[in-house]
Q: What sequence folds into this?
């Protein structure tokens, strides 16, 4: 026998018995996002590497360590590690800034990051996300958070925690960065290697560090004093307090977490995360924030924007599997042509119909029927010659022979009951 080829580490098949919940996640997304006026966009899975280097930021883990990059015809290409950069590229390229604001888009699909696979962390995983362009007011931040919460609620997920923070604007953040660096300087040698590397380029990211020894350092009173200080300028503070007001009025429960920084370089003002209490250490299901400078940085007109992304594998882990739906009918017959004809007629009428393609024994066919369908439709020589069909309810085992012309209403009544 030939050697088996296995799935690549960090990637997974989504099998037929699991697909029900995926369909549910996708259908609810379409339903809820449409309700809020978001339209779906599908961008390519690979883009120019430079898009992510500029659009995600070269101080991020994603760009530094996690990208799947390859060369083709002298171009450097990268499998998308996230989709905001791709959506922004498309927004600019397709002149969407000329559309009247807000422009609201959503997407779903696979993302690729080279990281250590573990529960809730894969190398190919899926995200569903939204982006709202053209609105600088805090109502936009509130809407996308409300949308995330309502999407999660529609899936039956209620035991979730919304954390919010404000990173201020590039101006007010400078002073904060300086203070953070200053207070952490005496501890520099005790920080982890990642933190030491980020210290100069992106000191705020240190606060997000998951390494225990770093967390202990950040818990020290003199460092906490800086972290907990209100550094943001008056305008940013007003934006943040308005956002909180909207969330209060909309009954969205949240906590302010001053350590919440988020991995991407482009965020300003609002950042948020939604965590589940039922996932182990990879407990973040949703992350997002405001990114007012990204469209300009990628060559577009100045356009404020806010959005989020959710990990669909993590949503799946919180939800029960949905078993595959049974077909309406399974035709049991050794007359394949007649069976195929009847199946086609019924399919045209909207029924899901299967039949055995190989003329197996009736008992074998019935066995299969009882696994996959609600009714067995038995089409023997007798039935064919009389224009009839024997209908067996596979739940109750009750069987009756009826005229072919009455079959549709029989199946329909049951389908609607
Ligand atoms: P984390 O801190 O868990 O690495 P992140 O900040 O890198 O998350 P984002 O880039 O904000 O994550 O992506 C949004 C969401 O996508 C996350 O909250 C998570 O649910 C999901 N996600 C991110 N990376 C992975 C992965 N490798 N495997 C599965 N889901 C992921
Ligand atoms: Mg990550």
A:
């Amino acid at each position: 026998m030939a050697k088996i080829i296995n799935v690549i580490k960090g990637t997974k098949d989504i099998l037929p018995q699991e697909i029900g919940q995926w369909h549910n996640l996708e259908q609810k997304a379409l339903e809820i996002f449409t309700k809020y006026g978001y339209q779906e966009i599908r961008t390519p899975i690979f883009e120019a590497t430079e898009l992510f280097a500029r659009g995600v930021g070269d101080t991020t883990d994603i760009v530094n360590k996690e990208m799947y990059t390859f060369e083709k015809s002298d171009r450097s290409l990268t499998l998308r590690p996230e989709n905001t950069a791709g959506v922004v590229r498309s927004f600019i390229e397709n002149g969407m800034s000329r559309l009247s604001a807000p422009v609201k888009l959503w997407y779903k699909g696979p993302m690729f990051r080279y990281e250590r696979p573990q529960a809730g962390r894969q190398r190919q995983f899926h995200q569903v996300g939204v982006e709202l362009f053209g609105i600088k007011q805090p109502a936009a931040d509130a809407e996308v958070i409300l949308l995330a919460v309502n999407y999660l609620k529609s899936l039956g997920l209620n035991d979730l925690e919304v954390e919010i923070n404000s990173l201020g604007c590039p101006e007010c953040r400078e002073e904060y960065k300086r203070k953070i660096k200053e207070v952490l300087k005496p501890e520099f040698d005790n920080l982890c290697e990642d933190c030491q590397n980020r210290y100069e380029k992106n000191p705020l990211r240190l606060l997000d560090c998951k390494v225990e020894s770093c967390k202990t350092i950040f818990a020290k009173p003199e460092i906490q004093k800086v972290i907990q200080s209100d550094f943001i300028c008056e305008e940013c503070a007003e934006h943040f307090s308005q956002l909180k007001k909207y969330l209060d009025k909309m009954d969205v429960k949240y906590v302010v977490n001053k350590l919440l920084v988020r991995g991407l370089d482009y965020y300003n003002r609002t950042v948020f995360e939604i965590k589940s209490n039922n996932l182990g250490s990879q407990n973040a299901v949703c992350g997002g924030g405001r990114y007012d400078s990204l469209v300009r940085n990628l060559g577009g007109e100045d356009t404020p924007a806010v959005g989020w992304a959710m990990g669909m594998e993590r949503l799946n882990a919180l939800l029960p599997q949905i078993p595959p739906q049974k077909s309406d009918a399974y035709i049991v017959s050794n007359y394949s042509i007649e069976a195929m004809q009847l199946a086609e007629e019924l399919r045209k009428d909207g029924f899901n119909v299967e039949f055995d393609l190989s003329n197996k024994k009736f008992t074998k066919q019935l066995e299969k029927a009882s696994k996959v369908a609600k009714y067995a439709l038995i089409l023997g020589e007798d039935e064919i010659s009389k224009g009839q069909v024997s209908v067996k309810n596979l739940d109750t085992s009750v069987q009756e022979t009826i005229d072919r012309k009455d079959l549709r209403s029989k199946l329909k009544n049951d389908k609607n009951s």
Residues 82, 113, 115, 120-122, 125, 127, 263, 282, 284-287, 309-311, 313-314 surround adenosine-5'-triphosphate (ligand 1) (CB under 6 Å). The chain has two domains: 16-169+232-318, 327-416. The chain has a mean pLDDT of 92.
